[in-house]
């Protein structure tokens, strides 16, 4: 279903008029009867449209536990959690955070100032606060920072009957029960059993006999992008997270990975566009300008370098002024080709496809691509310039310049992100505007270098 249809379906399920009437009339029972029938996503959608004074009424109508279900479905890129929590009574907010899944509560707390985090953890119930503290100390964007500790673990040395008893007892607090992980007496990950296998097994069968001991896991320090790739490759609903001694610390569920994939895609697109952050739509022009200015200022100085480079060939332009006509053409072709190669390389790194390929194979393939595209475009522009201006040598000069430029631009667009990836730098930093400007400089050097070398043929 498309996003637009989902939004329409959501709105159709929410009786906004009835809810607003109950809200303003202080009809708590009517509001709760209608509101609590909604899916938490629809509850969050309704809440997101309310004004501050209307939200204050909702806090009076819902318990912290009920508010927790709603809060887990709020979009972080649409809500400022800091402002929303500030509207609540501190004890109410702390109770709400206590009732959220620990990983979701950590996502909210990561948006707050450190003194606010300490304040909420202090008044939270001790067990929930400790779970959240355990997650907060993990480095951001790692497996540890997105895992949840609400999972079910059983022992290999127990029967299916006793495992089912544990499952029924702990299921209400677990984030998912489709996979049940098996640990040994030292809490090390020993295996995994699916809910289906557990249900169909004989009650007296030992867990060790029916579990799968070839379980895939990730290290707590693994980058979240790599975790997302693993879950995509293996089609898992949940992935166990372990420390260096294979102790089971938590699990990462597929809904968390969907958020990671959206976050990583937005981050990469931001960098490719040369913008600091595209997670939110900035309605404040000043905020939007602050995010865009850093790259633009860097590119401005690079552009000045390009201009000064052209100035160095002033004598060549004075003698053959017609050369200026083709500067935008050659620079534009270099930028376009480099951006195409960059997009392919960044995507290949993100999906892991380029990891499986030899670096020499990549270089040879990109060189071949540049050679073919350069040859075709170079021959085509040679004849276009000849028929347009009636000068075969000028056409050949422009054609050769494009031929060499496209080869180098293609190699630069693909090899620069590969080099950055090898140096442990995000390859998306080799943004479209950046690679375009670099290729502009290269193309100008090639074009005017060839023109200057063969000046005698152009001035005849």
From TrEMBL:
Main location: membrane
Spans through the membrane: 293-310, 322-346, 367-388, 394-420
Localization, UniProt: Cell membrane; Membrane
Domain CBS: 147-210, 211-269
PROSITE patterns according to UniProt: CBS
CDD domains: CBS_pair_Mg_transporter
Protein origin, superkingdom: Bacteria
Gene Ontology cellular-component terms listed: plasma membrane
Gene3D superfamilies, per database record: CBS-domain, MgtE N-terminal domain-like, SLC41 divalent cation transporters, integral membrane domain
Keywords from the UniProt entry: CBS domain, Cell membrane, Magnesium, Membrane, Metal-binding, Transmembrane, Transmembrane helix, Transport
Gene Ontology MF annotations: magnesium ion transmembrane transporter activity; metal ion binding
Membrane topology: Multi-pass membrane protein
InterPro entries in UniProt: CBS_dom, CBS_dom_sf, Mg_transptr_MgtE_intracell_dom, MgtE_N_sf, MgtE_transporter, SLC41_membr_dom, SLC41_membr_dom_sf
Similarity comment: family membership: Belongs to the SLC41A transporter family.
Subunit structure: Homodimer.
Role description: Acts as a magnesium transporter.
Name by which UniProt lists this protein: Magnesium transporter MgtE
């Amino acid at each position: 279903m498309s996003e637009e249809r989902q939004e329409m379906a959501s709105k159709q399920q929410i009786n906004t008029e009835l809810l607003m009437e109950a809200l303003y009339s202080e009809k708590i029972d009517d509001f709760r009867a209608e509101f609590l029938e909604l899916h938490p996503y629809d509850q969050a959608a309704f809440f997101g449209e309310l004004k501050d004074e209307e939200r204050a009424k909702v806090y009076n109508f819902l318990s912290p536990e009920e508010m927790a279900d709603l809060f887990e479905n709020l979009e972080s890129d649409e809500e400022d959690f800091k402002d929303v929590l500030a509207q609540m009574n501190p004890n109410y907010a702390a109770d709400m955070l206590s009732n959220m899944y620990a990983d979701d509560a950590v996502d909210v707390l990561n948006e707050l100032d450190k003194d606010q985090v300490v304040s909420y953890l202090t008044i939270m119930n001790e067990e929930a606060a400790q779970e959240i503290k355990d997650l907060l100390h993990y480095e951001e964007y790692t497996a540890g920072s997105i895992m949840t500790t609400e999972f079910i673990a059983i022992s290999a040395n127990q029967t299916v009957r006793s495992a089912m008893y544990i499952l029924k007892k702990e299921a209400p607090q677990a984030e998912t029960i489709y996979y049940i992980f098996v640990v040994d007496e030292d809490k090390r990950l020993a295996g995994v059993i699916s809910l289906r296998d557990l249900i169909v097994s004989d009650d007296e069968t030992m867990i060790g006999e029916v579990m799968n001991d070839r379980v895939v896991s990730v290290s707590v320090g693994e980058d979240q992008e790599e975790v997302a790739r693993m879950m995509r490759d293996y089609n898992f609903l949940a992935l166990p997270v372990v420390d260096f001694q294979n102790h089971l610390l938590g699990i990462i569920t597929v809904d968390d990975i969907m958020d990671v994939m959206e976050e990583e895609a937005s981050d990469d697109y931001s960098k490719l566009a040369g913008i600091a952050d595209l997670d939110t739509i900035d309605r404040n022009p000043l905020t939007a300008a602050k995010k865009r200015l850093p790259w633009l200022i860097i590119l401005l100085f690079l552009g000045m370098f390009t201009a000064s480079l052209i100035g160095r060939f002033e004598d060549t332009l004075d003698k053959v002024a017609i050369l200026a006509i083709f500067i935008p053409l050659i620079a534009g072709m270099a930028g376009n080709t480099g951006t195409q190669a960059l997009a392919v390389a960044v995507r290949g790194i993100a999906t892991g496809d380029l990891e499986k390929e030899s670096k020499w194979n990549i270089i040879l393939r990109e060189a071949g691509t540049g050679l073919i595209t350069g040859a075709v475009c170079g021959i085509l522009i040679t004849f276009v310039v000849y028929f347009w201006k009636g000068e075969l040598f000028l056409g050949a000069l422009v054609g050769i310049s494009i031929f060499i430029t496209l080869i180098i631009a293609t190699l630069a667009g693909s090899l620069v992100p590969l080099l950055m990836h090898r140096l442990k730098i995000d390859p998306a930093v080799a943004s479209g505007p950046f690679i375009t400007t670099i290729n502009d400089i290269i193309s100008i050097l090639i074009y005017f270098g060839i023109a200057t070398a063969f000046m005698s043929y152009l001035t005849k």
